[in-house]
Write a structure and sequence with these properties.
By secondary structure, this protein is an alpha+beta fold. The protein is built from six helices and five strands, in the order E-H-E-E-H-H-H-E-H-E-H. Strands 2-3-1-5-4 form a five-stranded antiparallel β-sheet. Strand 2 and strand 3 form a beta hairpin. It holds the Pfam family RNA_binding.
Length: about 150
């Protein structure tokens, strides 16, 4: 895959008070490549408060380099339902040319890539002119290339 149709990819997961911070970071790490030095890229942690006053840790990372985004896209090749994602692109890309996908946090902890809840992937799509239909087309072409079309 030569070109990457994204300006950046954001990955985010919530770590609730009942969850282990390291396990949530490991789940997110399924999609995060190692840095140039072979070390894991650094995740960001922000503490917030839930509706009932409980602590929620937001674990996130923004990937802006082409190789990092290629790594995320290569992980998406493991999705069994990539055809469904492609069919739903009109609902997964907004008017600001942003692509959204949610992934299963428990499966990611096991190293599997499955649609579900827990990890949010948000990617700003390159589209010129910046119109939703161009963004949908770019993402569709990229995802189709992942499945070998």
């Amino acid at each position: 895959m030569a070109s990457v149709p994204f300006h950046y990819v954001d990955l985010r997961a919530f770590c609730y008070v009942t969850e282990d911070r390291k396990r949530v970071a490991d789940a997110l790490g399924t999609f995060v490549p190692d840095g140039d030095d072979g070390e894991a890229l650094e995740l960001d942690y922000a503490e917030t408060e839930g509706f009932n006053g409980d602590r929620i840790l937001v674990v996130s990372i923004r990937l802006e380099r082409a190789d990092e985004m290629r790594h995320v896209l290569s992980k998406l090749t493991e999705l069994d339902d990539i055809d469904t994602v492609i069919e739903e692109l009109d609902h997964r890309v907004d008017e600001d040319c942003t692509f959204f996908l949610t992934l299963d946090k428990q499966a990611a902890f096991r190293g599997d890539v499955v649609q579900g809840d827990g990890i949010t992937l948000r990617a700003k799509v390159e589209a010129y002119p910046a119109k939703k239909e161009h963004a949908v087309e770019n993402v569709a072409e990229t995802l189709a290339s992942l499945r070998g079309d």
